[in-house]
Write a structure and sequence with these properties.
heterodimer; A: 501 residues; mainly alpha; Hydantoin permease; two-stranded antiparallel ribbon; 22 helices; 2% strand; globular; B: 144 residues; alpha/beta; Rossmann fold; 5-stranded parallel beta sheet; 6 helices; 5 strands
């Protein structure tokens, strides 16, 4: 067996030069498909000289509506969210169930991905420094969307006969609409969403992640992996395969435990870099505000910056996509709305904290040296910004990017699978087919250029958020009622802190 | 003062010795024993989505396994010896949970076995008996 493996590996490496052109072939084949899909699903309306994609408009209107409709719960509920995560209101008589903290941590590691490192760089490259401002605004607005979808996710989750739970938009559509006497429409919406999430999981939570992980690895290797995307892709796909098909859960468990520390590690060094660039901080912040309202130097001006900021924010924090409500639904709480409060913190951590820090790392580097990254974009640009101050950082960054990408892929494989099983049942055969497909796209992600991937992923996101937000509009009154009743009981003292700190 | 004692067991030989000790004492003094098994668990851990989805099921399994293999046999031994007892199986950080149980049941004393960890291991993972001694509201007997 061992001899066979060695021979196989040797053959693979000998064949390397011959296949170096393989990536280009794949790339050439997928680019036209990507742009066709993008143009079809991703219809853009020209606004003041900028191209406003419908999907962005759709998400922003939703987020603004929920922010007002829920009475700025993102600000007013923030403190309560922290108390809940801390366990202040946990029921001491049922320990051992999924806590608020655990549900949040799981959801956050699904969202904190390459978007936080590479997506921000894309935003700044295309939308200028001002895009950062709109990114933060989008993160803030997204908090209310999350609140609504995660409350519903818990309220309408399904308790399976085997004791496990399944939740998420497909379930709240089905049951929520049924409650409102529209069961036919609810079934349709649930199915629509389930298709959206299992197809969409292949883009945002898959190809984009593996692509950027490869790019960063290649950057660290000094371009030695040029044209070898297919190999890295196959390796990544093999690891994902081992976890989701092979059932080697320990890999996922270990990742899940390392990711939070990586995130803290990343933020710590990002702040160090920002402080090392301290003379550039005022100018960088000035650029963000200036760019946000004047759109200086950006194609499409203010609107251009705004669009890019919103687009990347959604991509990073997934508010409105409904994916997080699948993860949040596992919590055990008698009050679904409490998980809504907790989920507020997700866009906050992901976008307002981590993305902003990345943006400042890039922004302060740009002020010091406008051309610091050459023509690099995405993760490579962020890496260059770190490298200016901390020469060795690209290596841990590559490791971090790989882990972020990996944990996001594992989470999304689960989200996609939930969509799949909702549609086709729990049959093992079908699940395996889906998982294999998922692995294939992981590999594909490394072979294709970033541009087409962003096009496909954005288009797929659209597919997911159309049914989700539409459903949220209908079901938001239920959430509001829950919230009002909960707040009243909180005020009257009927719900109180179980543990005193 | 109540005449009940909290006995913490964990399926180890230390727990077994604690059981023997508590049983002898209880027979002499006619005390009631609260036999507790704490399944180590923290609400601040990081899990995969799948682990979370199956958590409720796993929790039930953990509780029934601990009850069947450790707690119930201990309770049977006690009943046969004519000692009055009650059982508790719960999740949580061990020392903290034992303190909470001691308060809840108003016990006069806690009996716990010693694991006899080496210095380094105890330093890294902490010792339940050690932290219990520091935080318990009632006297703690550590059985070697």
């Amino acid at each position: 067996m061992f001899r066979f493996m060695t021979a196989f590996l040797a053959m693979t490496f000998l064949a390397l030069p011959a296949y170096a052109g393989f990536d280009e072939t794949i790339n050439a084949a997928t680019a036209p498909i990507a742009s066709a899909v993008g143009a079809f699903v991703f219809f853009k309306i020209p606004v003041f000289g900028a191209q406003l994609p419908l999907v962005v408009l759709w998400l922003v209107i939703g987020a603004v509506f929920f922010t007002f409709y829920m009475g700025f719960v993102s600000i007013r509920g923030f403190k309560h969210a922290i108390e809940l995560v801390r366990g202040d209101y946990a029921d001491p008589d049922s320990p051992g169930e999924v806590s608020h903290f655990q549900a949040l941590a799981t959801a956050v590691s699904g969202t904190v991905g390459i978007g936080n490192i590479g997506g921000v760089a894309v935003a700044v490259t295309i939308g200028g420094a001002g895009a950062t401002f709109w990114l933060i605004v989008a993160g803030f607005l997204g908090m209310s969307t999350k609140f609504v979808e995660c409350t519903l996710g818990v309220k309408y989750r399904q308790e399976n006969p085997d004791g496990s739970v399944s939740g998420g938009p497909m379930y709240y559509m089905k049951k929520g609409f049924e409650e409102r006497g529209m069961s036919g429409f609810g079934k349709f919406m649930g199915t629509f969403y389930a298709i959206g999430i299992f197809v969409g999981a292949l883009g945002i939570g898959n190809m984009f992640q593996s692509n950027q992980a490869y790019v960063q690895l290649n950057t660290v290797a000094g371009g030695a992996l040029d044209g070898l995307g297919w190999l890295i892709g196959l390796i990544l796909a093999a690891v994902v395969f081992m976890v989701i098909v092979g059932g080697i859960k320990s890999i996922a468990r270990v990742t899940e435990k390392i990711v939070p520390f990586m995130a803290v590690f990343y933020c710590f060094f990002a702040i160090v870099v920002i402080l090392m660039n301290f003379t550039s901080i005022p100018a960088a912040i000035g650029n963000i505000f200036h760019g946000a309202f004047t759109g200086a130097g950006v194609q499409g001006g203010v609107i251009g910056a705004l669009i890019i900021g919103f687009q990347r924010a959604v991509f990073s924090n997934e508010a409105g996509i409904g994916s997080a409500s699948i993860a949040h639904a596992a919590v055990r709480t008698p009050e679904p709305v409490t998980e809504g409060y907790v989920s507020l913190l997700e866009p906050f951590i992901d976008t307002i904290v981590i993305c902003t820090i990345t943006a400042l790392v890039i922004g302060t580097s740009q002020v010091a040296d406008p051309n610091f990254a050459g023509d690099a974009t995405g993760v490579a640009m962020t890496s260059a910004a770190f490298e200016r101050q901390i020469g060795w950082f690209p290596i841990p960054l590559a490791f971090g990017a790989l882990l972020f990408a990996f944990s996001t892929m594992i989470s999304w494989s689960y989200y996609g699978l939930k969509g799949w099983t909702y549609l086709f049942g729990e049959g093992q055969m079908g699940q395996t087919i889906y998982k294999l497909m998922f692995c294939a796209f992981v590999a594909l992600g490394c072979m294709v250029q970033l541009g087409p991937i962003l096009d496909i992923s954005d288009a797929l996101v659209f597919l997911i958020c159309v049914p989700n937000i539409l459903g949220l509009y209908f079901l938001a009154p239920i959430v509001k009622r829950e919230m009002t009743s909960y707040l009243a009981r909180l005020k009257s003292g009927e719900i109180n802190k179980k543990y005193s700190h | 003062m109540s005449n009940s004692v909290l006995l913490a067991i964990d399926g180890s030989s230390g727990g077994e010795r604690a059981l023997q000790y508590a049983m002898e004492r209880a027979k002499l003094g006619g005390a009631k024993l609260i036999v507790a098994y704490v399944i180590e668990w923290s609400q601040y851990s990081f899990n995969t989505p799948e682990e979370n989805a199956e958590r409720h099921k796993r929790r039930e399994q953990e509780i029934s396994r601990a009850t069947e293999t450790i707690v119930q046999p201990a309770a049977n031994t006690l009943t046969e010896a004519g000692v009055d007892c009650e059982t508790v199986v719960t999740h949580g950080p061990p020392a903290e949970t034992l303190v909470r149980l001691a308060e809840k049941h108003g016990v006069a004393q806690i009996v716990i076995g010693r694991r006899g960890q080496s210095g380094l291991k105890a330093l890294l993972f902490g010792s339940v008996a050690g932290s219990l001694i520091q935080t318990s509201p009632v006297p703690v007997v550590v059985v070697p």
